[in-house]
Specification:
Residues 1-21 form the signal peptide. Keywords: Signal. InterPro entries: Kre9/Knh1-like_N, SRP1/TIP1-like. This is Yeast cell wall synthesis Kre9/Knh1-like N-terminal domain-containing protein. By secondary structure, this protein is an alpha+beta fold. It folds into 2 domains: 22-149, Immunoglobulin-like (Sandwich), CATH 2.60.40.10; 150-199. It has 2 helices and 11 strands, in the order αβββββββββββα. The chain has helices at residues 2-19, 153-250; strands at residues 24-27, 33-35, 39-45, 55-62, 67-77, 84-88, 92-93, 100-105, 108-113, 118-120, 147-148. The strands form 4 sheets. The protein has a 4-stranded antiparallel β-sheet, with no helix packed on it. Strands 1-3-6 form a 3-stranded antiparallel β-sheet, with no helix packed on it. β8 and β9 (108-113) form a beta hairpin.
Length: 251
């Protein structure tokens, strides 16, 4: 009999080691209440078989058959040496006892979970789970489906994008105004240049016309003077001829 007991004990020990070849979460549990923004701690017993060397820890919600990921808390945690993880409680809604942690590793296909615990608001307020029993089985395990509160990073980027768009639009508008002003300035300069050229041309034309009129007047005056001189000369000649003829007649 004792021989049988001593034979069975090593087998039970080996079986126990085989059964506990996974990390085993121990905290948080059903009595845990953490607040948004606080630092919380996850605890587990380490894997003695060396399979859980790249543990991923996720915050989950939902029922037992339709689990929903809320966010990833950590990746590549060595579950063969580490036994705890500190994480910052995210802002979620609703604030209720509907959240739990899930542990997975590439070397095993069997996830491990904590029991559901409460994430309260920053002021400590909470609400009751929206569902009292599990779907399908009717098990008396309250649950609900939570989510990250929208508005954090998503809204800041949108605002940044909106601000960037507004800034770009403003810059574009300013550039357009500058271009328009430049175009108007260029147009004004062109108009002024044309006007100046036209004025210069008119002035030159007027000056040329004046010179032409002066030249015509001078020419006319010269012609008149020549005509007058010729008339005087002719008159003088006539007088001389008459005098000569008179003298001849006297003789």
């Amino acid at each position: 009999m004792f021989k049988s007991i001593f034979t069975i004990l090593p087998l039970l020990s080996a079986l126990s080691t085989f059964v506990n070849a996974d990390v085993t979460p121990t905290s948080p549990d059903g009595s845990t209440v953490v607040r948004v923004g606080q630092t919380a701690e996850a605890l587990w017993t380490k894997d003695p078989q060396g399979n859980w060397t790249d543990v991923t820890v996720k915050l989950m919600t939902g029922d037992n058959f339709n689990m929903v990921e809320v966010t990833t808390l950590a990746e590549n945690v060595d579950g063969t040496t580490a036994t705890s993880l500190e994480w910052t409680v995210p802002d979620v809604s609703p604030n209720s006892k509907i959240y739990f942690l899930q542990f997975t590793a590439d070397a095993t296909s069997t996830p491990q979970w904590t029991t559901r615990f409460t994430i309260a608001a920053a002021d400590g307020s909470t609400t009751e789970p929206t569902n009292a029993t599990q779907p399908g089985t009717g098990a008396d395990i309250p649950w609900g489906t939570g989510m990250l509160v929208s508005g954090g990073n998503s809204t800041s980027s949108s605002s940044t994008s909106s601000n960037s768009t507004m800034a770009a639009s403003s810059s574009s508008s300013s550039a357009s105004s500058m271009m328009s002003s430049s175009t108007m300035s260029t147009s004004a300069q062109s108009t002024m240049t044309t006007s100046m050229r036209s004025a210069a041309s008119e002035s030159a034309s007027s000056a040329a016309s004046s010179v032409s009129r002066s030249a015509s007047a001078a020419s006319a005056a010269a012609t008149n003077n020549t005509s007058d001189a010729m008339s005087v000369q002719v008159a003088g000649g006539v007088v001389a001829l008459v005098g000569f003829m008179a003298g001849f007649m006297v003789l």
